[in-house]
Description:
40% helix, 10-stranded mixed sheet, alpha+beta, Arc Repressor Mutant, subunit A, 16 helices
Amino acid sequence: MVAKEIQIRPIVGLEIHVQLSTRTKMFCRCPVEFAAAPNSRVCPVCLGLPGALPVINRRAYELALKAGVALNCRVAAFTKWDRKSYYYPDMPKNYQISQYDLPLSEDGLFEIPRPDGSTKAIGIIRAHLEEDAGKNMHEGLDHTRVDLNRAGTPLLEIVTRPDLCGADEAQLFCTELQRLVRYLGISEADMQKGQMRFEPNVNLAISWNGREYRTPISEIKNLNSFRSVRLAIGYEIERQAREWKADHDYTLEKRGKMNFGWDDVREATEFQRGKEESHDYRYFPDPDLTPAVPEPNLIEAMRAEVGELPVARQRRFVAEYGMTDKDCEIILADRETGVLYEDAIGAGADAKTLTKHFIGIWNHIASGTNRSVGRLGVDAARIADLAGIVTDGTVSATAAQQVADLIYRSREGPPDSAEHIAAVAGLVQERDESAMQAWVDEAFASNPKAIEDAAKNPKKAKAAVGFLRGQVMKLSKGKADPRLAGELIEKKLKEA
């Protein structure tokens, strides 16, 4: 009997830790501050000293609730906090305050876009609120030091169902989730600062000879980049397939679950230890913290704040405003920028011109200030005004950048029209035909070779028009109307 071909189906789920955008820690008033001097942002509560009592951070609770709503989860009618026992150097209490059997949110789904324009719903098992651990520091040392500044920082742990089918789809999910939490102001999600960390759970369903085998589940710990997520999952899929082909007893049933680390230099996973199960953590309700009953009016308020989600808004922007998905990456990077764009449309801006301005001009200014376009402080009326004078030809697309810079610098002063700002700066386009003809004649007189080439070879005529238009713009110091200049150039070439 001939063995059937082996079929391999990757099964991937994710655990994502998202640091919430709060000024203080989860259960104390210590500030959340990246790169502060080690152990300088600690107190008796986050150090777990005897007699210190935790108090829940209301803002963290609200942000976690907003995330649950955005992920289409069922919000618990009653939730509590539990002690999850660890014995690691970076856990000063030797337990973590987390949530076990009654998480704040559960049973949700999150849609991600597919390359073909459709979407795929990824199930969310739970989204619960907890505190972070400290940080072990090894770099350049022959021993380990512990910085507890991060201990007690509010974390949202999001656990997906194993609905992801491979490395690329997992990377896309992580990208879209970062976009969501930033868009809603839930987290800055800066991975270089450890504000968003990923732990993929990977195994394979292998069909062979009429039987399905499941390989052991590997949890890859603490990945802090999208690249690492993709590479680690891809490597683990290949490694598990090799292991099973070498030994058909390499199965979940016989080997259980395992924790792996990721070596970014070698681009390989490394076995760490067998994975703990829930009974190993010895969960029990925290006696120092009062259970919570999420108020219906607060849930509705969060639902109103969430509003239209980025994926849905992107579909609408593509359909209504002719954007590309690439345009949406910038314009929908945060809620303020998307709202500003639509407000500018409402103020009369042409969508095509406005999109070019947001992607080019305004994004350039925003990048220089380390802010998004929506946080520049330039109102929609001024942005629409600039788009208007470019659309009607008052100012060239090239000069629009200079006008935008002037608008940005004067944003806190009395409002002035974009046309007046352009006129004072000498940037209003010259559309007087006689003045334009003089520049065209001078460009022709200075470039006889271009005229000769265009006359001899019609294929070169288009390139000659572009070149001569550039010469006219240079002679006019950017004031010439490029459309009118092109028309006059084409007319003169035909007469030549």
